[in-house]
Design brief:
Length: 199
């Protein structure tokens, strides 16, 4: 089957992969767009995993104001070189991240950052709620685990579904961006302020 330039272009726009990689992926999967996307994502995530340990000290601090100044966000995103920090792709990622933080209001970066006392409180609330709903004792642990997963998705930046495309979490978006850009990228820290909220 012949792979057209239009197919390669469409796949490249969807994944950010190189022209040759897109052509090879389409050829290997008989022109099936969905399978080619999945293949390139897997390949890219594997490549991204190799870059994770590399030092990232360059980057930028992105500022974002939303709702006529009612919500403000500051996020520091690091990469390995100033060359990448100046690219449009890196800047778009940092901007999308700040926009997401404004909309989704995460409280923590990752699951490991949730304080133990907050976690215990959430477990207790989930268990008590399940008991009040009349759930059997033998399924309580599974229900608590499910509700904790939902808590993480609501409060931890890397577990949250990306507001512009909920098919991806922020963690997956980060890995995909690392694989496309070719450098390690770290979301170092963020702060979000909302007008009138208690500090």
């Amino acid at each position: 089957m012949e792979i057209t330039a239009a197919q390669v272009k469409e796949l490249r726009e969807a994944t950010g992969a190189g022209v040759l990689d897109c052509r090879k992926a389409l050829a290997a999967h008989g022109g099936d767009f969905g399978q080619a996307v999945a293949y390139l994502r897997e390949k890219g995530l594997a490549a991204a995993a190799k870059k994770v340990g590399r030092e990232a000290k360059d980057g930028l601090v992105e500022l974002y104001s939303h709702g006529g100044g009612r919500v403000g966000v500051m996020v520091e995103v690091n990469c390995e070189t100033d060359f990448v920090a100046r690219t449009e792709q890196f800047r778009v990622f940092a901007h999308d991240l700040a926009l997401h933080i404004a909309a989704a209001a995460p409280r923590y970066m990752d699951m490991a950052d949730v304080p133990a006392e907050v976690l215990e409180s959430e477990k207790t609330i989930a268990r008590n709620r399940a008991l009040q709903e009349g759930k059997p004792e033998k399924v309580l642990d599974r229900i608590v685990a499910g509700r904790l997963e939902k808590f993480y998705q609501e409060t931890c930046l890397l577990q949250q579904p990306f507001v512009k495309d909920e098919a991806f979490t922020i963690g997956e978006l980060l890995k995909t961006t690392v694989s496309v850009i070719g450098e390690n990228i770290i979301i170092r820290r963020f702060a979000r302020w909302e007008l009138g909220e208690a500090s």
